[in-house]
Helix-turn-helix transcriptional regulator
Amino acid sequence: MEVAETAPVGALLREWRNRRRLSQLELSLRAEVSARHLSFVETGRSRPGREMILRLGECLDVPLRERNRLLLAAGYAPAYAERTLDDADMGPVREVVRRLLAGHDPYPAVVIDRDWTLVDANAGAALLLEGVAPDLLAPPVNVLRVGLHPRGMAPAIANLGQWRAHLLHRLRLQVDWTGDADLAALYRELVGYPGGDPGEPSGTPPIAVPLRLHRDGTELSFLSTVATFGTPLDVTVSELAIESFFPADAATARLLGAGRPAE
């Protein structure tokens, strides 16, 4: 992992502290260091040790990739490996993903990385991609672009305004939390896509935002869940997410041939 140019580690730590909206005193109490020492670290008057950086990174909930960058900025080696999914050591991770995807059929499920790039999908995910322009499905596939692009899923989404607002909100929170410039650029791109007004809910308020999809003259309705690995120590694993779509009504469950959803 190489970084050509980077800010001093103290400035980076101050940026993360400000992003988390913590005062120096609040962070010093969490990390069990003096506020004076933390001030010296942030201003560059004191060089933090490796353990200090890791402790502050944990207290600030800095993503593992960015914790490595903090270490590099201070002249230390990265603490967290970044293996590919094809790596031999990633066998247990591949098995977990495979079981989750296969077990969710016939309902759609996809695996994405931190950039919303499609990593894997089950057979049921093909239902979501019907009618999407081939160029949008050429690797690397960005699932948000596929979902909201006028030549992607957007024309088939019955509640496009509502679903678009939901996805943009998720991405905006991710940008705010990570400070990732690439995600910020993706957000600016997606905001420019047409999508309509989310509108005001009518009738009984929904329990969650559904994905309502026109397919073969009928409407399918899904609720989604997102699963991540709970205790990652590898950068790649920490950035994986599995989004699973479940029938939001009995009609969708019947149409997909799996009976009525659990109540």
